[in-house]
Amino acid sequence: MSVAVRNRVRVVGSGKATLVFAHGFGCDQNMWRLLVPTYADRFRIVLFDLVGSGGSDLTAFDVQKYATLQGYADDVLEIVEEFASAPVIFVGHSVSATIGILAGIKAPAAFAGHVMIGPSPCYINDGEYVGGFTRADIESLLDTLESNYLGWSSNMAPAIMGAREQPELGIELTNSFCRTDPEIAKHFARVTFLSDHRAELPQLTAPALIVQCNDDLIAPLTVGSYMQRKLPNGTLRVIDNVGHCPHLSSPGQCASAMDEFMAAQGW
Q: 97 and 114 in contact (C-beta within 8 Å)?
């Protein structure tokens, strides 16, 4: 199976550098539609769907390979090798920011930098680390998802999106969750929410921008501050936005943060 088919890879735009956009849980590459036009005249843009999401080839989903986020990171490296031209900036939302970190650690020469939108290396509180959830919170979330995925999606998606003044975005995220194969989504959710990649953060030496919302149900401000301290070359930009998907609810602020970061790097 080709990489292009497996991950429904799509390339648009042109430029001397490449932006690789990676979506979060329950989403697909369409979630980047408001940012892509901003960059298509300056950058080569690579879009794709994580295996098990969107229009990816579901027959490629392997429970063992994707039992950890490293399986997705390995896919990213194959996509970058085949479709991206250096320098490559990886733009990952939520769990895909962590996937990008793992890819960048495994192949540091593959990426010039990382943009992380609403990232979290660990969702569970641990001592002085505040990830936003207790272990019991996450277990309850996963149990609810396991027993009633569609109901969980309908209730959680609008809360995750935030953007109360834009209710159509909450509906869009709900529909996106509901289009995802429930069994694969349950597996991916467990891998995502139980992951802990704090120890790897110091190994990512490339420049990294953390775009943090000031009111985010999934990734609280404490997480962004923690990541800035642990990443050797990390920059934190807090934007005024309620919700976990600012690339949809506040794309202008996301683009402003990205532009400032990339200009500083000379991209």
A: yes
Active site residue 256: no
DSSP 133: B
DSSP 8-state code for residue 150: H
pLDDT value at position 159? 76
Select which of 28, 49, 75, 216 is catalytic: 216
Q: What is the number of domains present in the chain?
A: 1
Q: Can you tell me the distance from the alpha carbon of 138 to that of 143, in angstroms, rounded to the nearest whole number? A: 8
Please say if the pLDDT value at position 165 is more than 80: no
The residue from 23, 114, 244, 247 that is catalytic is 244
Res. 4: pLDDT tops 90: yes
* pLDDT of amino acid 178: 58
Q: Give yes or no for a contact between 114 and 207, defined as CB atoms under 8 angstroms apart.
A: yes
Three-class HEC string of 35-47: CHHHHCCCCEEEE
- Residue among 94, 96, 120, 250 flagged as catalytic: 94
- List the domain range (segments joined by +) for residue 201: 3-265
Lowest mean pLDDT among 155-164, 189-198, 253-262: 155-164
pLDDT digits (tens, 9 = 90+) for 66-88: 999 999 999 999 999 999 999 99
Q: How far apart are CA 197 and CA 179, in angstroms?
A: 28
Cβ neighbours of residue 51 under 8 Å, at least 6 residues apart?
A: 6, 7, 57, 58, 60, 61, 66, 72, 75
- 247 a catalytic residue: no
Residue 153, helix vs strand vs coil: helix
Q: What is the CATH number of the domain that holds 178?
A: 3.40.50.1820
Residue 62 structure tokens: 């392997």
Q: How far, CA to CA in Å, does 66 sit from each of 41, 56, 61, 120, 202?
A: 35, 14, 7, 19, 24
